[in-house]
Amino acid sequence: MIQITDNAQEQQLLPLFRLGFRPFFLAGALLAVISMVLWGMLLSGKIALPSQLPMTQWHAHEMLFGFAGAIILGFLLTAVQNWTGYPGLKGKKLALLFSLWLVARFALFLLPPDLFWLTMVLELSWMPLAALVLAQAVLHAKQWRNLFFVPLLLVMTALNAISLIGFKNYDYIMSQHAIWSMLFLVFFIIAVMGGRVIPFFTSKGTGTEKVQPIQFLEYLALVPLLLLAIFTWFPSLNVISGVLALLAGIANLIRVIRWKPVLTLPVPLLWSLHLSYMLLSTGLLFYALALFVPSFNATTMIHLTAIGGFGGIILAMISRVSLGHTGRPLVPSKWMNLAFIATALSGLIRIIFPFLMPELILMAYWISILFWCCAFGLFILFYAKMLLSARLDKRPG
């Protein structure tokens, strides 16, 4: 049983700060749209923005540390309450943590270069504080299997620090290594959580027996992703990275096939997860191909995993969590079907068009961006009100 504080006190809190998913999911979705529009305009030469980061690096940094970081925190700060029975972060403390994340986003643009140290303090504060909150709950419940998220958040903070130091010292190669390492860590987290929740959700949503994991397959799906986060620092070992990506792609594709995706077709909150996980796995295979075949671009190929894979899984998960934790049935608006499809199309267009029609690459970027923005724009349209309002059943959270 979750140990919740007095419900009367809970109802006095601003709904936005009653549980971690509310501010971080909403702001993360807004950042997903705004940052991509800005990125498209920058690529087109329509605008020039002042920033403490090179604009080519800013895009990758914000999508990983800003957007993905917000969603990961929102999910963990919400899930840890269910895992441990320990009250989740709420009220003023949650508002403070969220404010640090938000102010750091603006600091990258608004603070002058001589205050870069302040940007670093802001940007490197929110993940360790969230890790402290998670550690307190997990240690209280003695749930050691969930403790690994704490060092993961600290490693992600270290990568953020390395990327920022690299920018400051004009060592863009170091920054790029940190960003790629963060990318594979995010894939690893999604693969871990996907293995936990997708078979469970599928079993409940289809009324079928839960598919049990094969231990060897689980290691084959997860360990190479963790190793890729390390080997990305050694470009001379690209052959090893290619083998690791190939193993991870095949293993994760076998995983999702075992989870019986065909059974999920009548349930949007299920088939969206399965489709996105298939794209994540397939994208790893394309990335491996690019490391072996020089005519393919590895940065382009990984976008299928990054956009259609973890972008699609994020959209499906935040849609499900937002419904469940606001006391609503797990039945999204039919418009969200288009949103789930749009993330897949965004990823596919991003890798196919530049390869087939390199002369139209800017148009391909914009089409991909528009599909992405439509997807997360629909989430904002249909979910903002529920994230800003109290639960329908008047329960805490």
The run of helices and strands is: HHHHHHHHHHHHHH
* Number of helical regions: 14
Low-pLDDT windows of residues? none
Taken together, the total number of domains comes to: 1
* Percent strand: under 5%
Regarding CATH, which class? Mainly Alpha
Going by helix content, strand content and strand pairing, the class is mainly alpha
> End-to-end distance, in Å?
14 Å
Pfam family, one: NnrS
Keywords: Membrane, Transmembrane, Transmembrane helix
Organism: Psychromonas marina
Protein name: Heme transporter CcmB
Report on this structure.
The structure is a single chain. Helix 2 runs antiparallel to helix 3, helix 4 (91-110) runs antiparallel to helix 5 (116-123) and helix 12 (298-324) packs parallel to helix 14 (361-387). The chain has a single domain (8-387), classed as Cytochrome c oxidase-like, subunit I domain (Cytochrome C Oxidase, Chain A), CATH 1.20.210. Helix content is 74%, strand content 0%. The model has no long low-confidence stretch (mean pLDDT 92). It is mostly helical and 397 residues long.
Give me some keywords for this one:
397 residues; mainly alpha; 74% helix
A few lines on this structure:
This is Heme transporter CcmB. By secondary structure, the protein is mainly alpha-helical.
Task: Give the arrangement of secondary structure elements.
Elements: H1 7-10, H2 21-43, H3 55-84, H4 91-110, H5 116-123, H6 126-141, H7 149-168, H8 172-206, H9 215-231, H10 238-258, H11 268-292, H12 298-324, H13 335-356, H14 361-387
Transmembrane segments: 21-43, 63-82, 94-111, 117-135, 147-167, 179-202, 214-233, 239-257, 269-289, 301-323, 335-357, 363-384
Organism: Psychromonas marina
Protein name: Heme transporter CcmB
